[in-house]
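A common beginner's mistake is to predict each chain separately and then try to dock the pieces by hand. The better habit, illustrated here, is to supply every component at once so that their relative placement is modeled jointly.
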Amino acid sequence: MKARANIGVFGAIALSLAVLAGGAPARADSLEYPVKAAFLYKFAPFVEWPATAWGSATSPLTLCVVGDDPFGVLLDRTIQGQHLGAHPIVVHRLDRLAADSGCGIAYVGGSKTQSVAEALDAVQGTPVLTVTDEAEGPAHGIIHFVVRANRVRFVIDDAAAAKNGMTISSKLMRLALSVHLRNGGRL
Amino acid sequence: MAGRTPLWRSWRVIPVVAIGSALTLLLAGVLAGVYGEKLYRAQKVREATVEAQILGATASAAVVFQDQPAAQEYVNALQANPEIEAVGLYDDQGALIAGYNRGGAHLPRILQGRAPPVFEGAHLLVTEPMRQAGNIVGTVRIRSQLEPVSRRFTRYGGAALLIGMAALLLGVLGAAQAALARANRELRHRARALAGANQELQVQIEEREKAEEALRQSQKMEAIGQLTGGVAHDFNNLLMVASSGLDLMDRTDDPKRRQLLKDSIRQAVDRGSALTRQLLAFSRRSALKPEVVDLCKQMEGMRVLLERSLREDIQVEIDCAAGLWPVEIDPHQLELAILNMAVNARDAMPEGGRIVIRGENAADLADGDLSGDFVRLSVADTGAGMAPEMLNRVFEPFFTTKARGQGTGLGLSQVYGFTRASGGDVRIESREGEGTTITLLLPRSERPVTAKPAESDRVEPIQGRGKVLLVEDDDGVAFAVAEMLRELGYQPTRAENAARALKVLERRSFDLVFSDMVMPGEMDGIGLAREINTLKPGLPVVLTTGFSEAAAAAGQEGFRLLVKPYRIEQLAAELQAARNDPRAAGQELPA
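With all components supplied together, the output reads:
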């Protein structure tokens, strides 16, 4: 009882801290997008890009926001100074996603010029971690944000990752609500 | 010895060495303990670090994505390990995501900075970064419990105790060895001292023996002086009587007077003969010739002799109990013994007195080493008596209370020697001023009294006949004996020694051989007798000697023997007996 009570207290404190830090479970209104923004770069350590995806040991990892941008300056602040190993993480905003856009991670919000599905099709087979949002429509990237019980969660399509020549850490998959395995199964 | 000293010294060193070894071992043990402690801590740090790294690696996603339930699941998995008291998972901002806390350990909610492993008493605090693909994504903190120092030291203490006990054992053994070595050394020392003392004692004993030997020699010389003095005095008196008697016999033709003189000469010669017998008895060389005798008759027979030997103011009383048991003794020695006792009694009574000679039976006597039936013969006087300290010495040879020249000191010694040789013992009682009683205890004989013809001066010698070979080396004796033989009717022929005798025997025949025993030449009397037995069995041989040892030898071989000096009657009787003896010269009867 006491342990659970403690965790409850920790949870509450963690929540308030997360609000301050901008990276904690969030209420849909206020915290949903800051959390999503933090998640975007936090996925990086759990993802393995093929060696050919990197120009050099210190070439930047580009985080692209394709189409509508729900994050604004919040994302830039969050990403500011972040690295994946020796690779600095930078933010690019694009209207359309193409295979040669140079994105390592692509948040596909969809736009009038290119739908989410179209954008996903455009980078299929290239080493891009595609991230989609339930709020933007049903089309799934490799990672698909959903909000359950007021928490930002995600589902993973490992089969799609495989198509793009990428590997998702099992640790990450364990946190997913569901996983579409590359062998066709589901978790 | 010098080589052994370092040995016991080395034993002495052992306890020190043992204690030194123990201290060294203890020091080594402490160092080993410290080293072990260090190793233990290092290992614990390694274990906790690895634990934190594993937790960090597995729980990194849950921390990164703030998935508190998932993170808590990872953390809870560690609760199975009782050593891990507390675990905290912190995100990259230092905020606690999940954790547990056991036993009141402190788990901060916000972690500030990173720290190397820290020991807090019996606890280890490890703070390990959580990495993912080269990025530090959070922090793991583990607080684990160490085995209490006291328990570890108890373990070391056990080892130390064992080492200490071993050292103690070694020390005790060493000490025991040292003590043993010390005891051995002491023992050796004492043995040496004892050997020294023994040697000294040996030297003293030798010196004492030398001194005693010298003393004995001087005593012997003094005794011989006394003896020769006494004997010479007695013999001179006897010779004086004989000499003067012979002189006077030449000057008178009166038969009565000549008879008196002859009697006195005979008496002197008898006394001389008795004196030599006494000397031989004392030296225990005289062969006893025991006969079964009736003491009463023997004592009665001595009455005249005693009255002649003693003074007129001495009254002699002979009291002989009726039915007195016979005893087996040498009658001549008995006479001598009674005479000796009587003379002593006389000398103890210078003012005159009474001597009582008493014979009585003592049945079932048990006195000292004597047991059985005895005859008690006592001679009591009413004289001066003796002091107790003298009583112990009266039987010693040459001990005398008389003035020089008046006694030889052999009298009671003869009495003692004779009685002991006869299987009896002597008792003496004396009170100063009241008199002395000497008692002979003689064993009773079961045999009847030997019949013996009464000896008398007037008995005519038995006349014989026949040729006698007389073997005698001494011319004087040979002349006298030859005269006696002629007087008895024999025809003597003299030979000077055994060889000559055998030659004469080859040429002529004899009826009897009468030979001296101790003669010069290769063959003595016994040898001659044996030779004659072989050559001429049936020829009687009679041996004669004054030497008691030779007499004993002859007696053992069964030869006839006549002891010197002898009187003509004895010679006649012996020769007659030999001629009538069916045995030939002592040989066994033919079957």
